[in-house]
Design brief:
Elements: H1 10-28, H2 31-56, H3 58-66, H4 74-99, H5 104-107, H6 116-139, H7 141-153, H8 170-189, H9 194-212, H10 257-291
Length: 306
Amino acid sequence: MASSGPRAGSVRSKLVVNTILAASFVALLLPSVTRIAIHEWLSIAFCLVVALHLLFSWNWIANVSRRLLATLRGEVRFNYAWDFLLYFTLAVVMVSGLLVSEAVLPAIGFPRYRDRFWTMTHAVSSDVMMVMVGVHLAMHWEWVTTAVRRFAGGTLTRPAPRADGGSWWIRPIAFLAVVAVVLSGISLTLGATPMATRIRREAEARRAARAAAPAPAVSGAGAGGSAADGPAVPSAGQSAAAPKKGPRPPRLARIPLRTHLLRGGRTLAVYMGLPFLLTLVVLRVARRSRATRQAHPADPLDESGE
């Protein structure tokens, strides 16, 4: 796997892409604010931003992949494996979300596919992804802070032009596309597992029970008799073909935007914030002990895989 990637002015580009990625990810976690249609179309755009994020990180991916069986620090190995699991989790989230789509698939002519298993899978995998993103962000937090500090201070160096022209991105994009297709295929097999069959049968049984439930009895007091006297006979002033309509059910109160934002903020704090802080503490302790043994600590922006 060749170590190709954008020119090292990529640090600036990566900062822009990562900022857009973080903002769009937070927006995706608030479907009650963005509404389902925007949530689904934004998810598709999010995949394109993820591809750019991986593309601008290709030097690190390629270098670590080549040295995966060689001498690497445990932190780098864990980071590499964690990022791969995060990529697979993203595939599960996207596949399950597409299968239960309420806006994207109907917009292109496919009926909505109501499946309890995929709905549950989408919800659970989204929560798992939040936790994994929190850890992922903490693992790369030193890179983020260093890049922002050097960018703000104007100390980022510009690299020499690449010798391979502007076609460096073709092989990484092709590789990432193949991996995405493979992981999506693996995600689809989850729908054929015994657990998926059991969840579907339980959901169908609940739907059948609701459909077979008897309608609530209507009191006959207003029709001139009791319920025990049998069905009420309509009077001369009433029409049997046009029964009197009952009162309309009360409208559900609309939840304010502030409440949606507060709920989303609490979800982010629990599922992303806590893993992020715990990972930062563990990394700080591990890196402090390692720094005492190293005369020259590695540059956080170095992508050689050291």
